[in-house]
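Quick entry between incubations.
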Amino acid sequence: MIVRVDAVHVAYGSASVLHDVSLEASTGEAVAVIGPNGAGKTTLLRAMIGMIQPTRGRISYDGKDCNGLRAFEIARLGMVYVPAEKELFPGMTVFENLELGSYRNVRNTSERLSYVFDLFPRLEERRQQLAGTLSGGEQQMVAIGRALMGCPKVLLLDEPSTGLAPKVVEELYRQLAKLKTTGLTLIVTEQQVQLVLSLTDRAYVLEQGLIRLSGKSADVLRNPGIKAAYLGVA
Amino acid sequence: MTATLFDGIVQGLQLSLLAVGITLIFGLGGVLNLAHGQFAVIGGVAAKLLLDLGAHPVLAGVGGVVTAGLFGVLVDRSLLLPVYRCRGEDRLLLGLILTLGLSFVIDGYLNYAFSEFSLTFSLPIPSVKIAGIPMRTAGLANSLVAIVVFLVLFAFLRSTLLGKTVRSIIENEVGAELCGIDPARTRMIIVGLAAMMAGLAGITQGLFSSLGTEMGPEFTILGLLVAVVGGVRSINGTLVAGVFLGIVNAFASRYIGAYVAYIILLSVAMATILARPGGLLARST
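Done. Structure below.
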């Protein structure tokens, strides 16, 4: 298992957000985390990359214990987070945003850059444009591209489809499927349940900070309770 | 008229040099450094001590700048550590209180230990004529130093990877961390650089007039004023604001009187902040 989350608790003050959450992903696997708003999906990803310290439980990546590591240290190890807010550098160019993604590994910058431009040709056209002036879809491409620049082994994507037009989402998921075939491990949270379940191998259903259900994505998709709750099908 | 304008630009560049460090430390660390003027005085005092030891003036200047920089790093790694552990408003307030306290300590110590202190550099040729206007070489040298420093700073921020990491943290600290950038390390380098530039401003102050140990608070206030008018996160804005306020100050002093000049300076600064709250060069949204 390249990623192992073991019985993690997270609390903000006295309000606990995650209870006893466990999750694993093996190399090259794509894993979905679905659930309603406020279930703790974002908190889970943030705890995994060290933006939040869990009150209990263990998080490990590639055999290394991640508890107590800061976000930049975990990013350097190769587990990179693409938040829903994207957290780009709006006043810097697309090229500079991408360049900073590989700042730990400057020698690879040009090679990784052509890889990212191959995946998202639009970014090459816009390379000198300021990131803050891009459309939502293009900003998401920069965010994912920036994460890929650092040669990650695990990519954590938080609601990549949020705020994007359906056509753009479709295109984005095509590229994510392509990334999956390269052996990259993906952990994706998403509101668009059907879409993410067709991309991933396995899925976890997170509700009110608890894992309610987990299993093969195809099985989760067929689960009557899931259908009723998330797909609006009785 | 032209001489006053020239004078204003010289003073303005001096102000920018002082203020740019405030802008950098605020942008990167979220701390408004109220001891920044004292960093400048420390640079000047160190230079003077080296001069008294018989060092070459250039060497003394470099020594002063380096001392100020090391002092900045020391402050970053000690006094400011608890500040960086706070977020948002808490960080700003704690930073204000601690750096204000630091400024009192430095002022008290320097005024006590170097009560007769004054740093003046005299250049071999006091003035030259350019296009028929007599200009003080000190002013020219001073401006030249400031311009070179700004050019180097801009090149550093624009073209080097370290400079880009600095800009990335100013733009979005969370995003920078997600790229694997260690904000603490970058911050330490920048506080050191900011203190070096302040130290340099303290030394160049001795070039065109004289530097006294009591000038720290005045430097801090002028620096803050320039940084705020420039937009407090914009380095270009700081440069423009410094020159602008320098010119305002020179004209007000020349035609109205030195004391009233301060009131005019503050009024202009206030008017500018009201008119352009995001800073002189803020993109209008």
